Structures are given as C-alpha cells and as structure tokens.
Amino acid sequence: xxxxxxxGSPRPRPRRAAGSVAALALASSLLAACGGxxxxxxxxxxxxxDSGGQAAIAKDCSTDEYTITTQVLPQDAGQQRIQLxxxxxxxxxSIDLMSIDPxxxxxxxxxxxxxxxxxxxxxxxxxxxxxxxxxxAATWKDKLVVFPFWSNTQVLWYRKSFVDKAGIDMSxxxxxxxIIDAADxxxxxxxxxxxxxEGYVVWINALVEGAGGHILEDAGEGVDAKITLxxxxxxxxxxxxxxxxxxxxxxxxxxxxxxxTAGSTFGSDQGSFLVNWTYIWHNYDDTxxxxxxxxxxxxxxxxxxxxxxxPPYGGIGIGVSEFSDEKDLALEAAQCLVSPESQGVNAExxxxxxxxxxxxxxxxxxxxxxxxxxxxFQASVDAAxxxxxxxYWSDVSGAIQNIWHPPRAxxxxxxxxxxxxxxxxxxxxxxx
Length: 432
Fold this sequence. Notes:
Layout: H1 18-24, E1 42-47, H2 53-61, E2 67-72, H3 77-89, E3 97-100, H4 105-110, H5 119-127, H6 132-137, E4 139-140, E5 143-144, E6 147-159, H7 160-166, H8 176-185, E7 189-191, H9 198-210, E8 216-217, E9 226-227, H10 232-245, H11 259-266, E10 271-277, H12 289-293, E11 295-298, E12 313-320, H13 327-337, H14 340-350, H15 363-368, H16 371-383, H17 393-404, H18 414-426
Parallel strand pairs: 1-2, 1-3, 7-10
Antiparallel strand pairs: 3-12, 4-5, 6-10, 6-11, 6-12, 8-9
Helix pairs in contact: 1-3, 2-14, 9-10, 17-18
InterPro entries: SBP
Signal peptide: 1-32
Pfam families: SBP_bac_1 (PF01547)
C-alpha cells in the first residue's frame, strides 16, 4: 500500500515521551466539545483508516442509550499519534474512543490520557481468550489501559512456483539466510519493509527478538532504560539486513519499500518471498488471480538457525479518553466493540485478524481463509514480539531509523552506533 500504519492495517479495499506529548498542547488550541441538545449521547470514535470494519461495528454496537459515530484519522501512524496527542493534551472532551497503534499506548497512558479498563471488562477479555501479546501491548505499569481489538502478525508468504524451482522444502523452518540465498541465486526479489518509517523498525525488532535479544530493557526506567541493540542479537539483525541489501535479491526500491510496494514486488515476475501482514492472502484476488493461486505461507523466517522466530506484532487497541464527557458510556461501548463477534466482523471486512481466540471462531472467517492459515496466524501472534512498551518509543524508533537507514549502509558498526545515539536522544544530548 502507498502508506500504512505499523499495525499492518491495509489501505481501504473490497493498522515520545510524556513530556513531549504535553508540549504538543502548546502548539494546539482547545477544540470545543461537540455540544449536545439533551438528546441521546453521541460517542465519537476516532478510527484508523480501513475498508469499513470499524464503521460497521460502530453501527452494530450503538444502542437506545447512545450512538457511536466514527471520525477517520490520517493514514500514517505518526500523523495519527500527533492528531490524537494534540487534542488529548488539550483535554478535548469531544474524543470518546480512539483506535491506538500499540507503540503509542504507553505514551498516552503515561501522560494520563487514557481511562483504565475496568476489572470486569478485563475479566471478559481474558474469558474470550485475548492473546497474551495483545494484553501485554495494552498494559502500562501493570494496568490495562486499552481494549485489545485486533492483533496482526506477519508470516512468510512465498510463491509456490518459485520454491518449486529453487527446491526449498517449506514444510520445515527456514532462515533469512536461506531465503536470501535462494532468491539471489535464482534472479528473484524479496519483499520487505525498509523505508525510513515505523515499518522498518518493526522488521528490525523482529530480527533482534528472533536472535534472542531486545532493543531495550528495563523500560520502566524511562530515559534510563538499558539500550541493548548493540548486543549480539543486534549484530545478527544487522548482518541479515546488510546481506539482503547488498544482494541481487534486494528490490531496486528497497530503501523506500513499504507494505504496498513490497506486495507489488511479490506479485511481479521476480516475486519469491514476502514478509507482510495477514491481509495479503486476499490482496491479489481481483487484480492478479494467477498470483493469488500461487501463494503459499509459512512461519516467519528464523534470524538464527534453530532458534524460533519472533514474528512482528501489530494491531489496534481501543482507548477511552480520560477527558470524555461520556467516559462511563464509552467504557461500556468499548466492551461491545471488542467482543468476539465484533472482532470477527471487522476481520471479515478488513482482513485484520481478531485479538482473541473466540474472535477466530467467527464462522465467516472459515470461509475466507484455509484452516491451516488461521492456525498459523494464531500461532504467529502467540509467538510474536511486540515493540517495547515504553512512553519513549517514538524517540527510540526515530533514532533507530536515523542510524539504520538506508539499509544498504547497515554494517557491523550500526547496532552500537544506534545504541549510543538512542541514549543521547533519550537523555537530551542529541536531537532527532
């Protein structure tokens, strides 16, 4: 797609520090709350762009007591964050509900923008089998602060005709080294996300986690968190990016590639492998049916041979504004919006998979996806590695992008250089 959030939300088709956020208020004016006429309350839900799933369940979850309406945020995840942060910092009461990208959950919660999820609602989420990764991404300082709505993950998509030609057994786990070598030796290209944006950091994080490491540790320490990107796992991640970027398997547009351009590479005559989100299964149904019939799928590639991969985690959580004039009603409405039925309807329409096992039981999903692919999605979410939950993620991510981009410039020194730069940015010694 042309532009996409780090959640993996597809374009419409038939997803900083607390002090920095507060500072945004200085550049914003307090927007007047929507005036009521004494009639039925209107709950306004700010949603990320999709193909109609959120609007459909907003209608379904409206009641005699309140109506839920939607307002669409910008396509770009960073712009979504900025728009919401400015208004929340100004305590704008006209935002009742909001779809939040996981990297920004801790930031908003730490700034006091989000109402805590009630215990009875948390119990319902657990009863419907909400994935651990989704609950972890929705938690800050041991409090559940958003309602997990959908949980996206990446798998390794492949062209069956290519793997037959290359002689690769896809029934067994494969490594990044293996697929890069196969594509390099057979005049093929691999689709990844490596533009200077959040999607590139998603890839880097998955590589680091797959090697047994983390970008940072002790996130609760704030600016004093331990940056561990320069450790051995970071070196392993850099080696893979360097290998792909300097090989014949790298597409010409690697340094500006996103989910959409990577999908185009995969659908071309040189398509071989692609790491991308769940919507890919139906991405070519109308535009390239021959490609659609040629798609296979497997677990995300291993960073280190023999070590289980840690696929990327994306998704959306629904937050309730602490400043909403109808906070209690919004908390009630959010429970309907994330019910298994609602998650299933949204998945059916958008291709963004449920955040719970009960959501996967929605009958129409079985008609849209092979059973083993639905199982792979769930296993991948269970094994996924969310980006570190920290209110400083925007600074961390921006610092990584500055040092690790373009991919062709990545080498053995990149992890350590980025470690130093992240520390300097967090402690005010350098600017993004």
